[in-house]
Amino acid sequence: MKHLKLVMYYDSSSCISCALKKLPSWENTLERINTYPNKLKAYFIFAPSDAKLKLFYIALKNRTYSPPIFIDTMRCFEHRNPNIPSTPILHSFLLDEQNNVILVGNPLENKRIEEMFWRIVKEKLGEPKDSVGR
Known about the structure:
The protein is built from five helices and five strands, in the order βααβαβαββα. By secondary structure, the chain is an alpha/beta fold. The protein has a five-stranded mixed sheet, with helices on one face. Strand 4 and strand 5 (101-104) form a beta hairpin. It is globular and about 45 Å long.
């Protein structure tokens, strides 16, 4: 079965509190992603520095909306993916079923990336279960 992964990675150089504040803006996109059950998943991976970990947990606790996130305190994601560029703008990417990067960029921050994202999703996975008005 084909499946895709949208990965949003926030390392210790990222503004973690900024990223947490932007999580509610993902709500509509995540609802649309959920119309592809078990075929399209979003992963929010946070790797705050040890010095900022306590503040991260406090900020996370105070969020009214938060999709499922992964907190990578041991930097496993970074160690397993040493080729990830240090530029935060390149920390958002779509992976195919073999975990190959097929699109780089944040669909919420760039309209062209958003259009390419949904075009690739439809090409790879077909129409969603709830395709009314799409």
